[in-house]
Write a structure and sequence with these properties.
Elements: E1 7-13, H1 20-30, H2 51-56, E2 63-69, E3 72-78, H3 86-95, E4 98-104, H4 111-122, E5 127-132, H5 141-151, E6 156-158, E7 160-163, E8 171-174, E9 179-183, E10 189-192, H6 199-214, H7 218-227, H8 232-244, E11 249-253, H9 262-272, E12 282-285, E13 292-295, E14 304-313, E15 317-326, E16 333-336, E17 341-344, E18 348-352, E19 355-359, E20 367-371, E21 381-383, E22 401-406, H10 412-425, E23 430-434, E24 439-444, H11 447-461, E25 466-468, E26 475-478, E27 482-490, E28 497-507, E29 514-518, H12 530-543, E30 554-562, H13 570-587, E31 590-604, H14 608-617, E32 621-627, E33 631-639, H15 646-654, E34 659-669, H16 672-685
Parallel strand pairs: 1-3, 1-4, 4-5, 5-11, 6-11, 29-30
Antiparallel strand pairs: 2-3, 7-8, 8-9, 9-10, 12-13, 14-15, 14-21, 15-20, 16-17, 16-21, 18-19, 18-20, 22-24, 22-25, 23-24, 26-31, 27-28, 28-30, 31-33, 31-34, 32-33
Helix pairs in contact: 1-9, 6-7, 12-13
Length: about 675
């Protein structure tokens, strides 16, 4: 069993195509954990192994591995950079101790990079910034670091200075140690003197490093101001302390595809970054008395862990992945404090890409998994029953795009059971039935998110998922008043049918739905038939009159009618009520109503004008604006019909930097020219 001081737990974060998975491959290969260096573009990387990932050349789900380096065990979580799957990154960041932020040396800071910086800062993670792709054409280390300094609060400080760039990238200068490290074929390093042309820059960067480190400690800054420098020991200890407190973020350079620089990343992690035991104790709630309690990252503390990923496997069943925060897990059971349930498990294992390696026990910092738990889901806290604790569970991102789902006839039940199994795996997916349109809707974070879900369902469960834009839940109502007669008469031999009613129809206030008033005086319609008139009207309202949508906000007064002693019946008066309603609607200015939603759109200041103009073009009303740290928040009301696929358009407008939430507000009348089109489409289908 490894000592907790020798464990590191890190999550790799960064925008799409910044080299996260390639870096993870290089770290594993350099440490000897894998025998070949896989490539994302070739579809053979160890971390992106799902068919949907190899097809698209992107990471879709968080994946896990571990390696040994200089008597340390490092647990790595590789995460998606695509906005469609950022929920995976959020959950992984919440349970990590430290983060590696990848930024491309050519592309530099991008809009999406800010989201990952926010994740790092929100979780107070010590961060190593890795400037990737240093061997690519136009790679610029200094410019990239300057961009990070200008656009984030991470306080980047160069710990390694690249020797050469593009094809000439052959090593780095270790600023703290004052020596050059040259890359060898196998990924290891040769020590050498600092090249003469970099000596001045290296000296300047070392002074900058000293200054940054000194500024994080009162005693060090005093000595630095008096003497102008720190000893090597003071620098190293101060650097470790500054990194742990996230006061500075050291920067290194690498070219992962060529295996260059991975060894310096690993050296930095084990030399300067904190172990689970050195991280602040995790806070949770005692479920018995709601007191706030803490668990330190030590092996002899009471056991506690949190589930941050669930994987649906058609063969192995449900795989539950969790991070151990405190204590030691042994045996075959634990207590789920979130669900108040004891769970038994079979084999405990650590993940190594798509493979699972059995282990006998787990200590703080380890990411481990078990199969076939009955009650446990993502976000749940696992612990000892005698020492219960519940850690706060992260809320998944809200779904912003929905499609109607269907499949070939007869497979509906199998489809929905397959989707239900994926709901355990992906908390951002939502499946629900829209009563008004009679459609089953699947909602998610983006278009690609739902397309990938369809591909997974086909691969795992053999079901073809069809996605169609959802129908809007329009309503019908009237604006005028009318008095109308409805008569149903069928009297040709034998028992006939006769029902006759006269009703007054008028609009109700929006949202009041329906009111029926019996104003019959005397017995023109016997008492037992009057409810049938109301029932007939209500049934007809469900199907509507002008476009097949439910009818709402209607007041009906039953004022007159006639009946036949033999031929009248409940059914006849029901039909008479329905006929009167349909006839009256057409005489009383029928209109369509559409759902209006409240939208909150968060965008960087640069995009406010474009987004507001776009909302206006969608018949939206901007109600006001608020400011947050880096974002402007636009509050608006917009017809739902205009934003069914808004997630795609906002991503396009803002380069993926905008986000929004939606909630239903009220119904409003559809403008006549749009209503005419909807009615014409209904008649064409009918």
């Amino acid at each position: 069993m490894q000592d907790v001081q020798q464990i590191r737990n890190t999550v790799i974060l960064g925008h799409g195509n910044s080299g996260k998975t390639t870096l993870a491959e290089a770290l594993l290969f350099t440490a000897g954990a894998i025998k070949r260096l896989g490539k994302v573009d070739d579809g053979n990387s160890n971390m992106d192994f799902e068919p949907e990932e190899t097809k698209r050349h992107i990471t879709i789900g968080a994946s896990f591995n571990h390696l040994g380096w200089k008597k340390h065990d490092i647990f790595i979580t590789d995460t998606p950079g695509d906005d469609n799957f950022v929920n995976e990154s959020r959950f992984a960041a919440q349970v990590a101790d430290t983060a590696i932020l990848t930024v491309g040396a050519v592309s530099g800071m991008r809009g999406q990079t800010e989201k990952f910086v926010d994740l790092i800062q929100d979780n107070s993670l010590p961060c190593l910034i890795c400037i990737t792709k240093m061997d690519k054409e136009r790679a610029d280390f200094s410019k990239t670091v300057a961009g990070i300094r200008e656009n984030t609060g991470l306080n980047p400080v160069a710990l390694y200075l690249p020797i050469g760039a593009e094809d000439a990238f052959k090593g780095v200068v270790d600023i703290a140690a004052g020596k050059a490290l040259l890359f060898k074929e196998d990924g290891s390093l040769d020590t050498a003197d600092i090249p003469a042309d970099l000596a001045d820059e290296a000296r300047s960067l070392r002074e900058t490093l000293m200054e940054y480190v000194a500024e994080t400690d009162d005693l060090l800054i005093e000595k630095f101001l008096e003497e102008g420098e720190l000893t090597d020991e003071e620098l190293m200890n101060g650097l470790k302390k500054a990194i742990k407190s996230a006061a500075i973020a050291p920067v290194c350079a690498c070219a992962s595809l060529a295996g260059k620089g991975a060894a310096t990343v690993l050296d930095t992690l084990v030399s300067f970054f904190p172990s689970p035991a050195e991280m602040p104790a995790r806070q949770g709630i005692n479920p018995k008395n709601q007191d706030v309690i803490e668990r330190p990252g030590q092996a002899d503390a009471p056991f506690s862990a949190q589930v941050f990923k669930t994987m649906a496997d058609p063969f192995a069943g449900r795989l539950t992945i969790f991070r151990v925060f405190s204590g030691t897990l042994k045996g075959d059971n634990f207590y789920n404090a979130t669900k108040d349930e004891s769970e038994r498990y079979g084999q405990l294992f650590v993940m190594a890409g798509k493979e699972q390696k059995p282990v006998d026990a787990a200590i703080p910092g380890m990411v481990v998994g078990v199969a076939k738990l009955k009650e446990t889901t993502t976000g749940d806290t696992l612990c000892e029953e005698a020492n219960p604790i519940v850690y706060p569970a992260l809320e998944p991102l809200p779904a912003v795009i929905a499609y109607a789902v269907s499949t070939k006839k007869g497979d509906e039940e199998k489809l929905f059971s397959s989707i239900t199994r994926l709901l355990d795996e992906d908390l951002t997916l939502k499946l629900y039935r829209e009563q008004q349109t009679h459609q089953t809707l699947l909602s998610g974070v983006g278009q690609v998110h739902l397309e990938v879900t369809g591909e997974k369902i086909k691969r795992k469960f053999g079901i073809e998922l069809e996605l169609q834009p959802p129908r809007v839940a329009y309503r019908e109502t009237l604006k005028g008043r009318t008095t109308v007669q409805g008569k149903h008469k069928k009297q040709s031999g034998g028992r006939g049918q006769f029902g006759d009613c006269t009703i007054e129809m008028e609009p109700l206030a929006r949202g009041e739905h329906f009111e029926f008033v019996d104003k019959i005086v005397g017995g023109v319609i016997p008492q037992q038939y009057r409810p049938a008139v109301e029932k007939g009207i209500l049934e007809a309202m469900e199907k509507g009159v002008i476009a097949g949508y439910p009818f709402v906000d209607l007041k009906v007064n039953l004022i007159d009618g006639s009946y036949h002693n033999v031929d009248s019946s409940e059914m006849a008066f029901k039909i008479a009520g329905s006929l009167a309603f349909k006839k009256g609607v057409m005489e009383a200015q029928p209109v369509l109503l559409e759902p209006i939603v409240n939208m909150e759109v968060r965008v960087p200041k640069d995009f406010v004008g474009d987004v507001m103009g776009d909302l206006n073009s969608r018949r939206g009303r901007v109600l006001g604006m608020d400011s947050a740290a880096k974002y402007e928040i636009i509050n608006a009301q917009v017809p739902q019909a205009e934003i069914l696929l808004y997630a795609l358009d906002l991503t396009s407008m803002t380069g993926g930097r905008g986000s929004f939430t939606v909630e239903f507000s009220h119904y409003e009348e559809v403008p006549a020219h749009i209503a005419d089109k909807i009615i014409a489409e209904y008649k064409a289908e009918d």
